[in-house]
């Protein structure tokens, strides 16, 4: 497969595939004599694994750790579980922060008249609220 084909089959853009190669998440692609990248089924499998990790909001560093564990047949499932649970806790914390931000914005919006007048409680509140 060329990069366009594997991009289509994986649902990952060619640009991101090249990026994943540049940061070492995937090995350098085999090249034709003309210098074009070529990929096989194993490469597709790795890209689909990366896609699932990205969908779960894993960082590049975390993806690298998870890929290392996935590729290691003598890995400890305890290590995989620890990484997954650590990431899950971070996601829960992030969700709490997002909910607090949403609540703050809704409160400000509730104080805004939303009419044709220039006075705006949202802008006033944002200007007067200290940054945490």
Structure description:
With 132 residues, the chain is mainly alpha-helical. It has a domain at 3-75: Multidrug-efflux Transporter Regulator, Chain: A, Domain 2 (Orthogonal Bundle). Helix content is 66%, strand content 3%. It contains 6 helices and 2 strands, in the order H-H-E-E-H-H-H-H. It has helices at 3-10, 14-22, 41-55, 60-71, 77-111, 121-128, and strands at residues 30-31, 37-38. A two-stranded antiparallel ribbon has the order 1-2. The chain is elongated, with a radius of gyration of 22 Å.
Under the CATH scheme, which architecture of the domain at 3-75 would be assigned?
Orthogonal Bundle
Radius of gyration: 22 Å
CATH topology of the domain at 3-75: Multidrug-efflux Transporter Regulator, Chain: A, Domain 2
H-E string? HHEEHHHH
Low-confidence stretches at least 5 residues in length (pLDDT < 50)? none
Biggest sheet details: 2 strands, antiparallel
Major sheet strand order: 1-2
Task: Give a brief description.
With 132 residues, the protein is mainly alpha-helical. It has six helices and two strands. The N and C termini lie far apart (50 Å).
Task: Supply database-style keywords.
132 residues, Multidrug-efflux Transporter Regulator, Chain: A, Domain 2, elongated
């Amino acid at each position: 497969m060329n990069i366009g084909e594997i991009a289509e089959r994986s649902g990952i853009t060619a640009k991101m595939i090249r990026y994943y190669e540049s940061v070492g998440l995937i090995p350098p692609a085999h090249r034709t004599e003309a210098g074009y990248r070529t990929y096989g089924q194993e490469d597709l499998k790795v890209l689909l694994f990366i896609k699932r990790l990205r969908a779960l909001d894993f960082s590049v560093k975390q993806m690298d750790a998870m890929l290392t564990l996935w590729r290691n047949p003598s890995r400890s499932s305890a290590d995989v579980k620890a990484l997954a649970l650590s990431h899950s806790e971070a996601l829960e914390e992030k969700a709490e922060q997002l909910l607090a931000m949403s609540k703050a914005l809704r409160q400000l919006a509730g104080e805004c008249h939303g009419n044709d007048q220039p006075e705006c409680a949202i802008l006033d509140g944002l200007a007067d609220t200290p940054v945490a």
